[in-house]
Structures are given as structure tokens and as C-alpha cells.
Amino acid sequence: MPGFELFGDKERDEVNDVLNSGVLMRYGFDGKRNGHWKAKELEQALAKRMKVNHAQLVSSGTAALTVAMASAGVGAGDEVILPTFTFVASFEAVLALGAVPILVDIDDTLTLEPKAVEKAITSKTKVIMPVHMCGSMANLRALKDLCDKHNLLLLEDACQAIGGTYEGKPLGSYGDLGCFSFDYVKTITCGEGGALITNDDAYYKNADHYSDHGHDHIGSDRGAEDHPFLGYNYRISELHAAVGVAQLKKLDTFLGIQEKNYNILKKELSTIPEITFRTVPENGVENYSFISFFLPTEDQARKVHASLSKAGVDACFYWYDNNWHYHRKWAHLKHLKTLSFLPSKVYDQLPNYDKADFSKSDHWMGRTISCLIKLGWTKDEVHQRAETMAKTIRENL
Ligand SMILES: *Cc1c(COP(=O)(O)O)cnc(C)c1O
């Protein structure tokens, strides 16, 4: 998945444009910048690639989620439904707004199970946030129907799935708002950075203001700009955006390499009748950044994971025991241990997660192994890897 694997002259040229002018900020300094507006250029290119009206760059994927929700008016006491399998950032972004994260079970798509989502909806629910973990998506049609029925926002955390599609639409563009991360290990990278996309003019305008201290960005004199409301600093720098300009141009090449490598691994692993693959919903196309599969038992999954690593098959994850991506090891989040103040509403409304039954999620995650698809493998290396993986799995069944 990582864009840093194929990084070089193109990125350097874009960054040098910025270094040569010395204008490292995305706003203002019009006369000095030699016509370079890398952040704006990347926003326009991203909106075009994702077939949406608007893209707003920010400093990270976590910032994108926070700004996306703020731009749609999500705040104190609002409940946001998200899956038990995600990255801690999605949970953190909800709390950053004083809103209440409600964890909900996943199914064999490894993302939100629509039936469990429906059960979790209350009068305080404002957002359904599917997280397209490891490159593939939830049954977005079912989630969209729930949103329409209950008047909720559909916010896609597409940080790990840029380039995938659902019903022919780029992931991130299907819901009301979609978010991407361009951190160092994502499919394309800016070093640090993120973006939100939307077709909604008001959300976009709010996001544009909120991510820069509420500046309205009208006119060319930053000092004279108005501030319709408060905001924060979630700006991306020109240097980071410059890297992204070069990386986005390579996205389709990266996706092609990932798909090819994925298919070689999948073909080999498909010869093992005991393993099954993560379900990709009908009309969905993943971005092939990971290959995820289920072993028959938790015990076998643990053994296979350990053996793969011993056999030199790197970058395979057993998320069930991981403390960043699965709810089991999230005591600090579930008990809201924080250095700062959270509205008392959050404490009052947070479910008692210690008593929550996530056995459905455990049923899938306990048996899941996901392996990263890399861009830099030679043909021989992928075939060798496929053989070693299949052999190792067989030995542990
Ligand atoms: C990486 C990631 C984020 C956060 O992105 P950052 O740019 O690292 O802040 C959010 N959600 C998911 C699913 C991610 O993988």
C-alpha cells in the first residue's frame, strides 16, 4: 500500500518549486510564490479524480475526519456509529468534537454490519461512519438506506481505501462526506496530510473555514479576511501538498501494481479449501492494498500468523491482538482517559463497553489475517511469497 515505496524525482521536482519560492504556506504571499499553489492544485486534481465537486486538504486523516464532522454540524452529545475494527483515529476524531463514539459489530466484510448499525440508532445518532479497513468497504447501499430513513449523515473513512469503488463511484464519494489520509504508510503519501471530499457546497465552505481558524478566504489580503466562526489550524503545508501532487498522479499506477500482486497471492491461496476470503460487497471493487482471509479457528490464525513471520513473510497482521486497530485493547478509549476536558454528556452517553457483547466481531477478527500488498516486489518475489504463504498455512491446519 505505501506510496513511499515509489518515491523520487517527480516528488522532488514539486517540492523544489516550493523551496525555490520559499513560500511554504498554502495561503497568501501571492507575489512571492512564482505562481505555485500546490495545495489548491492537489485539491482540484483530487476532486476531479474522485468525481466530486469539492476537496479540502488538511494536515492529516484524523484532521479530515474531525473537520468533516464539524463542517456538517456534528458536536457535543451527537452519537456517531463506527465499527469495532478501525484505527483509533476515527474514535479520537469523534471525541475531539465532544461527540459520542458508538462502537458497532462488524461482519465478514470486516466493516460495519448494517443490522447491528440499525439496532444502535437512537434519537441522538447523527452519523454512520463506515471505515473501509484494508482497502475494502461495507455494504454501503444498506448503510445509505439507513441514513436516508433516519436522516443521518454517511461519512466514509476511506483513509485505507483510496482508489476503490462502490457502484462505480470512488470510495469516499458515495456518502455525504469522505476522508482520506496521506500519512507516510498510506497508498499515496504527503508525509503527513489528509483530505475530505464532498458534493455539498455548505459542508465544503465550512470545512475550508474551520480548518484555518475560521478564515473566510475571500479576497487576497489575508489580514483583511473575515471570520464567520471559530476554527482551528488543520492546514496542510505547501511542502506536503507538493509531494501529494506528484503522488496522486501515480495513484492509478499504484492501484494497477497492487491488483496484479493481489491476484497472484489470491490465486495461490485459493488452492487451500480451509481458508475463505473477506467478503467484498456486491458492486464493490477494493483498492487491493491488503489481502485479508479467515482461518477456520482463532488458534489456527494465531499459529499461521506466527509461522508466516518466522518464514520471512513480512507485513502480515493479526489485528485481533493489535492495540491500534481493534477494540479489545482500547481501555484508554473505552474509559475516556484524557488529558483534557470532555463534556459530561460524553461520559453519560458512552455505552459501558466493558459489558458490551462484541462476540460477532470477535468471531471474524479472531480468525482474520491481513497481509499488506507492496508495490516494490519483483514478479519472482510475489510468486515466491505466494508459495511460502500457502505452504505455511497448510502446515498449520
Ligand atoms: C491512517 C488512518 C486514519 C488517520 O490518518 P492520519 O493521517 O494518520 O491521521 C484514520 N482512519 C484510518 C482507517 C486510517 O487508516
TrEMBL record:
Enzyme class: transferase
GO molecular function, one term: transaminase activity
InterPro entries: DegT/StrS_aminotransferase, PyrdxlP-dep_Trfase, PyrdxlP-dep_Trfase_major, PyrdxlP-dep_Trfase_small
Domain of life: Bacteria
Gene3D superfamilies: Aspartate Aminotransferase, domain 1 (3.90.1150.10), Type I PLP-dependent aspartate aminotransferase-like (Major domain) (3.40.640.10)
Assigned keywords, A-Z: Aminotransferase, Pyridoxal phosphate, Transferase
EC number: 2.6.1.-
PANTHER family xrefs: DTDP-4-AMINO-4,6-DIDEOXYGALACTOSE TRANSAMINASE, TRANSAMINASE
Similarity annotation: Belongs to the DegT/DnrJ/EryC1 family.
Name of the protein in its database record: DegT/DnrJ/EryC1/StrS family aminotransferase
Native source organism of the sequence: Sediminicola luteus
